[in-house]
Design goal:
Blueprint: E1 8-12, E2 17-18, E3 21-22, H1 24-36, E4 41-44, H2 56-70, E5 76-79, H3 85-97, E6 102-106, H4 115-128, E7 133-137, H5 139-142, H6 148-154, E8 160-165, H7 170-180, E9 185-188, H8 194-199, E10 204-207, H9 214-225, H10 229-238, H11 240-246, H12 253-261, H13 278-290
Parallel strand pairs: 1-4, 1-10, 4-5, 5-6, 6-7, 7-8, 8-9, 9-10
Antiparallel strand pairs: 2-3
Length: 294
């Protein structure tokens, strides 16, 4: 059995931006609030953090800033994956040097890869890392699916310890759990499948919802893991409409709008991302008001 990076909810945190670059004052405020509300870990510079449109210098600076601001209070997981394995290796080495607790490694996108290519790429990155690595499977965005059999091979690597599973196919997650057992922790990558993933032995969620509901998302996981399945399930179902609104357009467009509505950042995105359509934003804000968030 490998050491677990975290149990519960990790926020895939947004990166506050404005026309001048990264807004570190707002970023610090949001990080502090997340920790105050009891979040279990923070994922920085991932998909929700717009890592794909950060410059290399910004990407590194955002990771370093988050690590220093968190200061060991919860684990910090750095998004260091890429479709360029050599770049992912260099970014991973840097994140290890500045004190990130673990790496989140996206599957190759656009150029994609065969299952063999993914095995070789992830192994090369993990070989270069001094910290645990979490695979990230989200084929709807990357066009590249880590099959359960491939994950089982990768789970043999001592530093590949977990997977963020966002394939959306609960049957695939079940097969993954059956093949990997305690060699690979599973985190839900979909907020609408937190409880289903936990029911298959998952350790928690890497969440978009927790950008605006960190306490509740963590509590949902905690209740399930403590055996209070009915209450955890009730929470999962209660938040479904809000979760749907947070994913009605490409992530992190709605997440950034929601965090901005709570006063934690400007609703500023970099192209090709654009602000929410007005009717979608109106529905999102209505659901947030119903939850007492704004």
């Amino acid at each position: 059995m490998k050491n677990t990076v975290f149990t519960g909810a990790a926020t895939a945190i947004v990166t506050p931006l404005n026309k001048d670059g990264v807004d570190y004052e707002s970023f610090a405020k949001h990080i502090e609030w997340q920790i105050e509300k009891g979040i279990d870990a923070i994922v920085v510079a991932g998909t929700t953090g717009e890592g794909s449109t950060l410059t290399d210098a910004e990407h590194r600076a955002v990771i370093k800033f988050c690590v220093e601001k968190v200061n060991g209070r919860v684990p910090v997981i750095a998004g260091t994956g890429s479709n360029d394995t050599s770049y992912a290796i260099e970014l991973t080495k840097y994140a290890c040097e500045v004190g990130a607790d673990a790496m989140l490694l996206i599957t190759p996108y656009y150029n994609k890869a065969t299952q063999k290519g993914m095995i070789e790429s992830f192994r090369a990155i993990a070989d270069a890392s001094t910290k645990p690595c979490i695979l990230y499977n989200v084929p709807s965005r990357t066009g590249c699916n880590i099959l359960p059999e491939t994950a089982a091979v990768l789970a043999e690597h001592p530093r590949i310890v977990a997977i963020k599973e966002a394939c959306g196919n609960i049957s695939q997650v079940a097969k993954l759990a059956a093949l990997c057992g305690d060699k690979l922790d599973i985190y839900s990558g979909n907020d609408d499948q937190i409880v289903p993933t936990l029911s298959l032995g998952g350790k928690g969620v890497i969440s978009v919802l927790s950008n605006i509901m960190p306490a509740e998302t963590s509590l949902m996981c905690k209740k399930y893991l403590e055996g209070n399945v009915s209450e955890a399930t009730a929470m999962q179902l209660e938040y479904l409409d809000l979760i749907d609104a947070l994913f009605c357009e490409v992530n992190p467009i709605p997440a950034k709008a929601a965090v901005a509505a709570m006063g934690f950042c400007d609703n500023y995105l970099r192209l090709p991302l654009t602000p929410m359509e007005p009717q979608h934003e109106e529905n999102l804000l209505r659901l947030m008001r119903e939850q007492g968030l704004i």
